[in-house]
Amino acid sequence: MSDHLDINTPKTIWNRYKNSPAAIALTYISFLLIVTLLLITPTYDTNDDPAMGLTVSGYGNINGPDEHLLYTNIVIGIVLKHLYVAAPLIPWYGLYLLSALFLANWLLLYALLLLNRNYLSILGFTFFYMVVSVYFLTHLQFTSTAFLLGMAGLVLILSSVILDSKGTHFAWLKWEGALCLIASSLIRYSSLQMLILLALPLLLVCCFQYFKLIKFKSYVIPGTFAIIGVVSFHLYDQHYYQQDDDWKSFIQSHAAIAKVVNYAQIPYTDQTKPIFNEVGWSAFDYWMLRNWIYLDPETYSLSRVQKFQERIDELSLRKFPQVMQVRIHTARSAFINPTFLFCFVGSIVLMWQNKKCAWKRRTVIGMLLWTVLLMLGLVIYMKLPERVYIPLISFPLFISLFFAVGQFRDKDDYEVSTVRSSLKYIILILVLTSCFLTWNQKQRSDRIVRSNLRFKQDLKQIYQQMPNKIFLAVATFPIERMLPLDNQSEINNLKYLWLTGRQNSPLFQEKMREYQIRSPFRELYETERLLLIFHPKMNPILKGYLKQHYGVDVTLQSVMEGGYFHIYKVSKEQEEPVEAKRP
Q1: 180, 16, 198: which is closest to 107 by C-alpha?
Q2: Residue 258, SS3?
Q3: Which candidate, 235, 184, 237, places its Cα nearest to that of 70?
Q4: Could you give the angle at the alpha carbon of 82 between the alpha carbons of 76 and 83, nearest 5°?
Q5: Is residue 432 packed enough to be buried (19+ CB in 10 Å), middle (13-18) or exposed (0-12)?
Q6: What secondary structure letter does DSSP report for 44?
Q7: Measured on CA atoms in the order 180, 388, 399, 430, is the torsion positive or negative?
Q8: What are 126-147's pLDDT values in tens digits?
Q9: How many Cβ atoms sit within 10 Å of the Cβ of residue 61?
Q10: Which of 163, 425, 522, 577 has the fewest Cβ atoms nearer than 10 Å?
Q11: Alpha-carbon gap, residue 51 to 480, rounded angstroms
């Protein structure tokens, strides 16, 4: 009797869990996240998110928390602002991104378990989590977070379609998917746009395959709800900025400058020099703009920026080797990324394993080809960072996994293990590779954590040694060394103007008025209260710009060397006295 109970207890527990895929997905994802956080510290990918965190927390403003996050919907900004007002020492911005990642992973695993409540679903998702999700965790960024949450929404809708075709209907799945798509658009609207464009072949094929098997009318209301929700929130976000004249003006100029800076790197050559001359820009002006150090409202007026963009749109940038070299280098760094390679090869391997359903295999092939074509288009016509390519290639990988586990739906564990003799070798390779990639992300995280400690020490030293100084900082000021779980309060007492593209914003102008600064560049060499946080490689550009626009030759005297930046005192060069002629 005792032996009988021992044998059947595990099976009974497993059967109980199989009846609640949401519970088992929640339990397993919670376990994975806890283990991950014990081993790896979440880190940011760029300075965009720490800057948004400083804005909404109020540690980067004069008048406290502010909801204007620019790229993230104002609704999220308002919610985070009130949270920071209520509890300012809690890192709400980082927690919100981590919560979105947790939700996305939970729903992705849930969708897999709905199709196949088998250990292979959990095993396959574990590989995806160790490679893709851990990468997103150690490169935390609102763009990739929005993409993953939107991907979870699409997968839930696809799960609903497949289950409906088999006679099993879960009405809430399509509504959950719609809510995820809306939430994704709130985090980053352009991420959802890219996701829909990437998923277009998949959506068309699924509509064709299941058109006669399910009642698509039941998807009309949830689909309409998702579209109205996404569009309404987007329009509200635009209206919120447009109703304030200062923010309206800033958004217009910021969008124009971002287009010039982000999408093209125009070489200053004899062929392009007439374009620069038309708008009155020198090579120094352009390189200051490209590094987001613009301040002069006349030099970088909206009309000049738009005129420059119009003229470069008339050029075929692909004919400039300098432009294509930069874009190819960016793409190559993404394509040789181990995470990218794993996703690409993993998609092919899982597709090869799925030999039972030809249309699913062809769909994955089509998705991979479509993804590659999109990436080539981005390389040719734009200059996008690596963080865009990794989410794109992760989508075909998950769809390959999604289709592969579906073929085992009606088989027990023993039959699954004998489907193909090579399966155990594939699993072994996946285990070793995913462990290697996870270890790489842990090493990166450890380096950022060490940098974070140094940066906090630097901030403390700056405030102790120069409490009354104001600092003009550029993008090389490494706030990206802040961690998502930092409350950023260490920077609260530092008086600084940070030149990262928000110079014309009302928040930046408020700081200038508070510090009684009219022209930061003049303050650098005319007074001693404003110091420069700069990287040495930028010194020639700054000197050339000041010489051109202000007619001064300056010297940069280093007064402090931080872990990733220098603090300079800027002063005019003294002219050498002319010796009197002897009679």
Answers
A1: 180
A2: helix
A3: 237
A4: 85
A5: exposed
A6: B
A7: negative
A8: 999 999 999 999 999 999 999 9
A9: 18
A10: 577
A11: 8
